[in-house]
Design goal:
The protein is built from one helix and 14 strands. By secondary structure, it is mainly β. It folds into two domains: about 20-95; about 105-200, Beta Barrel (Thrombin, subunit H).
Length: about 220
């Protein structure tokens, strides 16, 4: 029937022995962990996790292959020598199904350089709209051709400067005489260290926004 909204997505993942999760503590630093067992409402883990204090609040990220990413909140229940155990304090929230998590950005400049056969080398500074390990989206005053090779330079707080080869994969012309074009860039040949830096910033920033939104809903 018209006017009826789609039912909410209530799917929830199940953590089992061997599940890989990422834990974000108070400093937003991502820590990789492996689930040892799930018993009596507790998630027992091992890995590169810095033990916290009992009742410390953390965020959990669990990626389900072929499905999506799931976020939740938890608190530290037991610490060594009892072994680190977490108790979930909120439901799982299902997120994107993209190959790379894409995060909106605010106040980040995306400098795009390219070579034009007639004018030579030129560059343009775009407002970055979002970024992922696979690419970025910006709003440009210039026209770009699909498959055009470019170089993208940008700086993310806490992880530094990136200079990445890219190509244009999509351009949506703006409407109106002064409207900017929306341009999607796909990064090329991104090295492991650069991928790690990008993921660290994206996961930490998403965890920070998730906690901020949850606190805002709780105080409303």
């Amino acid at each position: 029937m018209g006017g009826m909204s789609a039912p909410a997505d209530t799917r929830s993942p199940e953590l089992t022995t061997g599940s890989h999760i990422v834990i974000f503590g108070a400093n937003d630093e991502p820590r990789s962990a492996i689930v040892v067992q799930v018993r009596d409402g507790l998630i027992w883990i091992s890995g590169s996790v810095t033990p916290g204090e009992p009742d410390e609040r953390v965020s959990l990220l669990y990626s389900v292959p072929g499905d999506a990413q799931y976020w939740s909140t938890a608190k530290v229940e037991l610490v060594p020598p009892e072994t680190l155990a977490l108790r979930r304090t909120g439901p799982w929230s299902r997120r994107q199904r993209r190959a790379h998590v894409r995060l909106t950005t605010h106040g980040v400049d995306l400098e795009v350089s390219r070579f034009d056969a007639r004018r030579g080398a030129e560059s343009e500074k775009l407002p970055m709209l979002d970024v992922s390990v696979g690419g970025a989206l910006g709003r440009a005053a210039s026209h770009y051709e699909v498959d055009e090779p470019v170089e993208c330079s940008f700086e993310l707080p806490g992880v530094g400067l990136f200079d990445l080869d890219a190509r244009v994969v999509r351009m949506v012309p703006g409407k109106g005489s002064n409207a900017r074009n929306t341009v999607a860039f796909a990064f090329q040949n991104v090295g492991p260290m650069q991928q790690s830096r990008l993921r660290r910033w994206i996961f930490a920033e998403e965890a920070r926004r998730y906690r901020t939104a949850k606190l805002s809903r709780g105080s409303a």
